[in-house]
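Dear colleague,

Following up on Tuesday's group meeting, I ran the structure prediction for the two-component complex that the binding team flagged. I've pasted the input sequences exactly as they went in, so you can double-check that nothing got truncated or mislabelled along the way. The structure tokens for the whole assembly follow below. Feel free to forward this to whoever is handling the docking comparison.

Inputs:
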Amino acid sequence: MDKKTGVYICSGCSIGETLDMEALAKVAESEFKVPVCRTHNFLCGREGLGMIRKDLEEEGVSAVVIAGWSPRMKTEAFRFDPAMVQERVNLREHVVWSHADGGEDVQMLAEDYLRMGIVKANKSEPLQPVAEEISKRILVVGGGVTGVTSALEAAAAGYEVTLVEKQDQLGGFVGTLSRRFPKDPPYTELNLEGIADKIQEALYHPKIQALTSARIKKIEGEPGRFNAVVETKSGDTEVKAGAVIMATGWKPYDASKLGHLGYGTSPDVVTNVEFEKMAGEGPVVRPSDGKPVESVLFVQCAGSRDENHLPYCSSVCCMATLKHAAYIRSRNPDAKVYIIYKDMRTPGQYEKFYMKTQDHALNFLTKGEVAAVEAGGNGKVTVQVKDTLIGRDMAVEADLVVLATGMVPNAADGEAIRALEDAKIKATTGESENQKAEAAKTVEALKHHEGTAILNLTYRQGPDLPVLAHGFPDSNFVCFPYETRRTGIYAAGTVRAPMDSVHAEEDALGAAMKAIQSVELASRGEAVHPRSRDLSFPEFFLQRCTQCKRCTEECPFGALDEDEKGTPKPNPYRCRRCGVCMGACPERIVSFKNYSVDMIASMIKAIEVPDEDEEKPRVLVFMCENDAYPSLDIAGLHRKEINPYVRVIPLRCLGSMNIVWIADALSRGIDGVMLVGCKYGDDYQCHFAKGSELADRRLENVKETLDRLRLESERIQLTQLAINEYDKLPSLIETFMKRIDELGPNPYKGF
Amino acid sequence: MNDTATKHPEGEDLLVIGGGIAGMTAAIEAAEAGCRVVLVEKSPSLGGRVAAVNQYFPKLCPPACGLEINYKRIKNNPAIQVLTMAEVENVTGEPGDYTVSVRIAPRYVTEACTLCGDCTDACKVEIPDPFNFGLSKTKAAGMVHKGAFPAQYVIHREACPDNCRSCEAACQYGAVHLAQQVERRTFHVAAVVAATGWAPYDAAKLDNLGYGKTPDVVTNVIMERLASPDGPTGGKILRPSDGKAPSRVAFVQCAGSRDENHLPYCSAVCCPASLKQATYVREQHPDAEVTIFYIDIRTLGRLEDFYSKVAKDEKIRLVKGKVAKVSGDAGTGGVTVEVEDVMGGRKLTETFDLVVLATGIVPQTDGLPEGFVLDEFNFIAQPAGRTGLYAAGCARRPEEVSATVQDGTGSALRAFQCVVRSAHHG
């Protein structure tokens, strides 16, 4: 269907005073011959909106270009059919508010932006939502407290659930506990509420299929259309699911590595997990001789907060020890309890329980370092403690020493497993001996990942979630804790981060919400966070694919699988619509209906490049639309002056930057290209995880282009910017412009 | 929404009280799953406490980055109705069927506002800027801050001289309506989530810690504003008394928290927050020395990495000890801190240029509708079993942003279940 484009230009907010509106309208009318072009002095008001709506309804306008305020503003009022072609031209924040004095250069800027907006609208096509029959069943992997809670809570919201547990019964570690941390006011008494009722409910819930002694053999597909094969005692079962919750829990840190804390020197040195079991089953006695325990010493951070073991804090051990002290106190009111800690960590209301423990005259708590644990006389264990609060070293004799060992996630590193597989192949089929040797080294370094897969995803980028630090498949985002890099698969509970059972139950709720949300969005063909509700999908013109595998390797979300030849096999529901694949593709075969290599290239072509003698340089700035672009908006709101020779093109993510655009720009005589995107590295801020980093890597390949054109590499620059650094943005641009000035004009002007 | 469920027959599905990060999350997460949500915020813009924070720990990334995405999710979702300057007056009914009355205070600026700024230019009244805790001035007509959402001005009418209408006259777009009155609206919803957040503990109550007596003793929330590019000093951390760059900065942990006379609980965020603020100081003033006085450093989970990283800085010193006294030193213009260094087993008296009190989290639960149960500290106790009134975020427990978001997401599910149940049975 032919589009009928309407261009609407606002003259309000001093746009009309700064710019020649007639000349601007002429760009649309004469250069582009748009069928409808209207100017209004208050376009965002009711009348202006009414005017556009009327054109949509009565004039058959099917694509709109609104030139006025930033696309980030007045979005709600101008929320048209989301499938319709709509473009915004930011004449206010990016033109008149950041160039107060107006003049020829600012007029040229405004006209270029309008050209670019119209070109993009002309090249865009209406979106066609992909909505297919999907499964809304939630697959929960792990039947501990997190998994059982997720299953029950999802079922309570009306969803079918399959719960897979490797043990022969549900409940996990928490299922074995006799007491849990205080949960309710006044927070001084242990919580007697177990999870037996929950387990029963999960086993008999009409919406929950609980499979025990079961493991995931394979999960293939995508959100809304996962096919899992679950191996059970009675054979394999196929499960069609819409989303997956990974609640595989934790294991205690391997105490055999804690010889320096006395583990193994005496049967009377036990871990907190062993103590929990002992105390749960009967009287607390010395394992060595069965004698009643009169004194117990707890060693906190046994393995945790230790660079040689677990660098992180396991979060629960302080409270676990306080709980264990209460166990002892309830069995033997006269027992002495020693707790040697680095810092006592009892956040929030848990402090009350700590205070209660401190108040007891026979509980001795001190900061200190355990120097040695050795078998002493009288069948006791002697613990040497340094750097205590009483200002001196001390030796404590105890009947029992409990090591507060920490939590290790039951996770697998999907990317490492994949890298191992790749290296194994390369080690035998490598092109050179050198390559084979390198691969063999990689195999050696990664071989401990062999056979660790849990979810067994049939994803090109590996069979499990990518992990972040310390083996946790946690989110890197403070503000979006459930953002795993595999759409529709959410980690919850202690596999995500060390946490206690109260927090794990709450985490289960959040993960269940995200799982439900992901199937609901998938059912309507809508993207999940951060481009929530986006209806566009990448389309692949595979006839031209050269099987270079860049897209399948670079997709931050593992959305693309590969056939045997290496041709990408898209899984649209895994896609987050960032466009990284589009940026990666050297053949330019990846496009969205409203975002493509050709569209941006055409926008670049629409920029008028003055001749060299006019001394008006042109610099193209690609900006991440999530952070850098808003930052420029805020600069505009502050009326910060921006150099009028720059032309900004917002990108979905800097990772969608295709280097062909740089070649296009330079060969047209544009003097320089700046890329402004999110910070990368360990603390990356990119909402698509790797976008700005990938863009930076691609710039290395630009050098070749520059050499071919005999242009200086300084004409290209990537700048990392946080969204709140709007105050730095004008000078960053100015500095780059100065450099361009020094380099002189691009000799390709006028070609 | 599940196929079997239908919308709550009479209106919206869910009402969320509080538009900070917890409430916003609850609203967005529920709406993206298919609920129709009313988000009620008492101030003129969303974002709550985090909007006034410079950077999050441990990534040292700006909150505006995540807020931008969340605002975008709201803008793109017609199922979310945002009411600012609004407070819930009353909730009646039962799970699945609540009637909520909301009072909306006049903003005096309508949605026609274009942010052009003419009213600010015309306004003759300056007021202490509430966004910067009064450390700078702003006009009575203006925007809360340039990144505020909704992007709409507000008039602080209480500060206006009688009969002044210059802002109204200046607005070309007819967006200023000084005649605006209080509006009341009623919603019928299946569930209510209270995410009313927290306020910093009133540092003036900490008699011995010098706050209010010397300008160079500030709180951690003020420190965030000092470090923010859009704060009162343009992001420069300077001594409030004389605008000089501080060379010695102290942080006093547990300023009010873990103290039976003030807040008996641990506020959970102040340790990583001070470590983070120590990095602000060190980043800006490469020669400055920072001392953190603490009882226990509480950086749970992966936050321990952040602690280790910060502690490696040789100019950041950690001293275990509860601060006994902070006082201004008239002679040197410095601030003296008296503390018992428990590991060193001695009393320390040291002078600093700037002292930051790590004040804690006080739940904002006054005036909550009937039906919410509070604990002894006024945190909302999460109800047992399935009801229709839920709590999320720091109104429920002191917690950092990530845990708050997790909790907000969980509360969205509880509310969602309630909607589904009411649709089944009602």
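Chain A touches chain B through 97 residues (CB under 8 Å).

Cheers,
M.
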